[in-house]
Amino acid sequence: MAFLTQPARDRILELFDHYVSKQRPEAAARLIDSVNEALRVLDHDLVGGRTYPGGYPDLSGLGFLWFKVHRYWFGCRRSADHGGHVLMQILYDQADMPRRLLPDGPVVPWGG
User: Fold this and answer.
1) Cα–Cα dist 23/28, whole Å
2) CATH (residue range 3-105)
3) N or C: which terminal CB in the chain sees fewer CB atoms within 10 Å?
4) Residue pLDDT, tens place only, 35-54
5) What's the whole-model pTM score?
6) If you ran DSSP here, which 8-state letter would residue 50 be given?
7) What gap in Å lies between CA 27 and CA 33, rounded to an integer?
């Protein structure tokens, strides 16, 4: 089972609602496809990852492993309590990433 933090889950739902409200069903569908692919990567422990997303080497000291799916950067950390990686960050690749970082929060199952 894949896990993510509540702030990451909230970000996903906010992005989805934004795309729906702007009548962008393709973007909403691509977001969900991206999230499902990212969680599949985490669930199967396939994270290779980088220490920072895109062109933001200043974010390398935060302890996340970053990987990209479609237009989104995902940040995760290994969690012994949850048997693998936990998704903690989701950032659109054109966002001001340092300003859009999410706080830590409780860990929840995707879909739960």
Assistant:
1) 9
2) 3.30.2310.20
3) C
4) 999 988 888 877 777 899 98
5) 0.92
6) B
7) 10
φ/ψ of residue 35, rounded to 5: -65, -45
Between strands 107-109 and 3-5, the pairing is: antiparallel
Tell me the two tokens of residue 86.
């936990």
| Residue in 53, 44, 63 with CA at minimum distance from that of residue 97 | 53
CA distances from residue 21 to 24, 25, 36 in whole angstroms, order as listed: 8, 9, 21
State mean pLDDT over 63-77: 94
Phi, psi of 39 (to 5 degrees): -70, -30
Overall size of the chain counted in residues: 112
Three-class secondary structure of residue 68 per DSSP: strand
Binning pLDDT at 50, 70 and 90, where does residue 34 land? very high
